[in-house]
Amino acid sequence: AQTHYITSVNSLLHVTFRYEDATFFDGVHETVMNHNIEDPFFLFWAPHIVHAPLEVPQNYLDKFNFMAPTDKPGHERQTYHAMVNFADACVGNITSLYKSKGMWDNMVIVFSTDNGGPIYGNGSAGANNYPLKGGKMNNWEGGIRGNSFVSGGLVPPQLRGTKYEGLVTVWDWYATFCKFAGVDPTDHRAALANLPPIDSHDMTAVILGTNMTSPRTEIPIGTEPRQSNISNAPLCSSYSPTKTYEDPRIDGDEAPPLPTTGKCTTVSAIIVDEGENGMWKLLTGDVQQDVYTGPHYPNSTTNMISQNFNHHCYLGCLFNIKDDPLEKNDVAAENPSKVKELLAKIEAYESTAFNPHRGTTNPASCQKALGEYGGFWGPFLP
User: Fold this and answer.
1) What is d(CA 201, CA 215) in angstroms, rounded to the nearest whole number?
2) What is the pLDDT of residues 47-76, one digit of tens each?
3) How far apart, in whole angstroms, are the C-alpha atoms of residue 355 and residue 242?
């Protein structure tokens, strides 16, 4: 493993910090190196890149100097690509280690993003979801259709290199990994508290090729509380107006202010897979980032505040994303019964949506992190 550092300088401080994801990589490398291959193995590795803040060791940034002449002045696209390259190198090195230790042939690896790339802030976040519409913080396909792949020796040869078109969510990996491990995924404590069962489907049959029909047929799509005309949405005033972290260097990652009047929902859309009859997606309310980016976004000519492009869906913009993944053709007017059907499903999900009081911000958390814990979050209540 290489050692990577970034130097932070201001008028009072000159400190060399270890690049966080290099530290994560070293931990993963050590764990794999020390593993007895006769024992079961499960590893969850969550790199903090590719994500703001846009920082990467200089030697990786230099690989993409060819982008500089056409990039924005802050080199956001170049830095974003370099971060992807750093993550790719880490995954590649661990993959080689699995193979050298004889672990690969009896292994399943899942690689997944958790959302689309951020295109907000006039390109200051560095990402691109071309050719899809929109990006992170909104429910167009560019914001929620995340990249993912499954690999490892247990994947049947005939499935390697193929593309799967069924519905799979990040939270389906919970039930899937439980099945591989022979563990019951049921949340029995939640059941005793009369809470709904987990929303996670076992995808092992799909991965192993024994049944290519996804057990998931619906995805309710959430959002931060947004004003809504959904009949059973709670009052906006019932939500806790907790402030969230935002990166001051990036314009557009801020959650919009909570409306003070009317009704608000945290379930604003749904996707329903009906097989040969279509994969239907219904969006409701105002949906920002109604815009497409080019293949080389952001660049030196970028001048676009994506959150200014609003699409007013109110009670229904309908797309068949099986045939129209770019969401160019709203077919709600031609399919009123389908809109009514999917809207009823959204309302059913809204009726069980969790709406807790999330408390208020507490300066003591930052004071503890910056002081006693040396830059890390930790317990802060007295």
Assistant:
1) 6
2) 999 988 899 999 999 999 999 999 999 999
3) 12
For residue 248, name the pLDDT band (cuts at 50, 70, 90).
Answer: low
Residues 6+ apart with CB under 8 A from 330: 317, 318, 319
Average pLDDT over residues 308-315: 88
**Average pLDDT of the residues in 128-148:** 95
Secondary element (H or E) of residue 208: helix 204-208
Kindly state the tokens that stand for 274. Answer: 């009906």
Residue 228, CA distances (Å) to 138, 333, 366 in order: 15, 20, 34
Residue 289 · residue 140 · CB < 8 Å: yes
Helix (H, G, I), strand (E, B) or coil at 260: coil
pTM of the model: 0.89
Would residue 327 be called left, alpha or beta, if left means φ above 0 and alpha means ψ between -120 and 50 degrees?
Answer: left
Q: Which tens digit of pLDDT belongs to each residue from 115-133?
A: 999 998 889 999 999 999 9
Spatial separation of the C-alpha atoms in residues 310 and 268, rounded to whole Å: 15
pLDDT at 251: 61
Say whether 368 sits in a helix, a strand or coil: helix
When computed from its CA atoms, the radius of gyration of the chain, rounded to whole angstroms, is 23
Residue pair 117/128 in contact (Cβ under 8 Å)? The answer is yes
Residue by residue, DSSP assigns 45-83 as: -----SSSS----HHHHHTTGGGGGGS-TT-HHHHHHHH
Predicted pLDDT of residue 9: 39
CA distance 35 to 27: 12
Residue 225 and residue 357: Cα distance in Å, rounded?
13
Q: For the CA atoms of 250, 251, 253, 256, what is the dihedral angle to 10 degrees?
A: 160
